[in-house]
Amino acid sequence: MAYAIETAKLVKTFGATRALDGVDLRIRQGSVYGLLGPNGAGKTTTIRVLTTLLRPDSGSATVLGLDVVRDARAVREKVSLTGQYASVDEDLTGLENLVLVGRLLGLPWKSARRRAAELLEAFDLTDAAGRQVVTYSGGMRRRIDIAASLIAIPEILFLDEPTSGLDPRSRNQVWELVRRIAAEGTTVLLTTQYLDEADRLAERLAVIDHGRVIAEGTSAELKASVGSNSLHVRLVTAEQRALAQELTSRVLGDGILPSTEPLEVTARLKSAAQAADVLKALTDRGVEIAQFTVGNPSLDEVFLALTGRPAEEAKP
Amino acid sequence: MSHDEVLAIRTRPEPPSAQSAVFTLAWRALLKIKHVPFQLFDVIVTPIMFTILFTFIFGGALAGTPREYIQYLLPGIVVQTILFITVYTGVGLNGDIRKGLYDRFRSLPMWQPAPIFGALAGDLIRYSVASTIIIVIGLLLGFRPGGGVIGMIAAVGLVLVFAFSLSWLWIIVGMLVKSPESVMTTSFIFLMPLTFASNIFVNMGTMPPWLQAVVGRNPVTYLANASRGLMHGNASASDVAWVFVASAILVLVASPIAMRLYRKER
What we know:
The structure holds two protein chains of two kinds.
Chain A: E1 3-14, E2 17-28, E3 32-36, H1 43-50, E4 58-63, E5 66-67, H2 72-76, E6 79-82, H3 94-104, H4 109-122, H5 138-148, E7 156-160, H6 168-183, E8 187-192, H7 195-201, E9 204-209, E10 212-218, H8 219-224, E11 229-235, H9 241-252, E12 256-257, E13 264-269, H10 273-284, E14 289-295, H11 299-307
Parallel strand pairs in A: 3-8, 3-9, 6-7, 7-8
Antiparallel strand pairs in A: 1-2, 1-4, 4-5, 9-10, 11-13, 11-14, 12-13
Helix pairs in contact in A: 3-4, 5-6, 9-10
Chain B: H1 3-6, H2 18-35, H3 38-63, H4 66-85, H5 87-98, H6 101-106, H7 114-140, H8 148-176, H9 180-196, H10 209-215, H11 219-232, H12 237-263
């Protein structure tokens, strides 16, 4: 079996909205794969089709060689889903939730309890095992939710925006978990709105916009399309922007990136050292600089580079 | 066991049988009663108030003495209470769907209708608890059923059959409306006339003819008559039969619609 997940021309419409407009994906087994895109791009719909919760209108999708429509039940036996919202029963305790899922997977009571205890331990939730999930913090909820997806370790784990709404510490914990899960052989497909998250976790990623894959590759490849480093210069007055852009492009040859901010000049750098040249050229000509940063391109910049418009406008 | 062994792929268990999945989900419903007892409290206080208020305020006027009236009223109050609680089936289902819990259930390799049947099984237990509490209060207030324990069990059993069937309507409502609160309001639009335009509180002989025509065709009237009859040991076979017929119609019409909506994607 060449691919863990393969889709061809996947289409799904909701009324007048084409949520998926011909999604083609090929995801290798044993990797962490990221679906990157703004809200409403079709990430969640893709995951819901792949986990058999939605039927595609047309096109095909196979998971581990099984058709998601014809072999839905067999697919469900091999994958787990952690949705965007904590899909556990808030009224029940952490332990009860995990035992419940264990039983629904077919474990006898005793094994379900033992497995639940193992996972609570591994996820650092043993102290909270007897408390109702409603009392958990955001990070603990996310962890119990992911734990519920790992009662029987799936061949593919789907994580829909696993870190949205989490504080930085909880986000790091989830990232660490994802790495450990992948290291043990599970293929992970995760969606995210954050390029740095995709960058840290995923070996390959697909950028989705308006229900289509608009770019695919390793994060290095994707960034190369935007420039490995980008320079953001924030000006004091908008009047100097044209001058600043002209000076910048003179230093860099090319590389000015479109920006929606009237006070900002954004440019692609070939090396971090070029930033000094640009800044010198600007200050020599009296351009007042409020702030400058050199960093990785953001999702916005990837979007601008790929689509020529910012990510926010991609909402339906 | 090391942490990472916990995360290694092992063989998956065989998916559970349908009965085992339903049983597990009924267990979940019981845990909810344990953790959120207020839900049960909430639905029991009203009937207790109704019983006490009606018995002592209207009892004398309606039946001569409160003691005589409670013999008529109590079986009806059991019917009304249980029918009111049936709404919680739809409310709970709606909450589960909205919170994403059904996404998890539906992505598990189990018999897909199990969550609905599990919820219904759990509800039957709640109905039984509520019925028992009301009957005990009735007995304390002077309710003396001629049918004895057997009669009371038979009456409660019949109410449970009808409640199970009626729940399917609220399952449909629960899948169609946006929030648990709207399940409540929508369901009570049907439930209020269904329970009050019946002979739960008073004999329909005193009602105007047009109302008698309505009340006389209300399945809840048959249910109230039948459960009164069973509790007092003088049930009419036709009342009981009509309750079964009404229940069968409800299940035959509503359950296919409910299951269709359930399978439909959201």
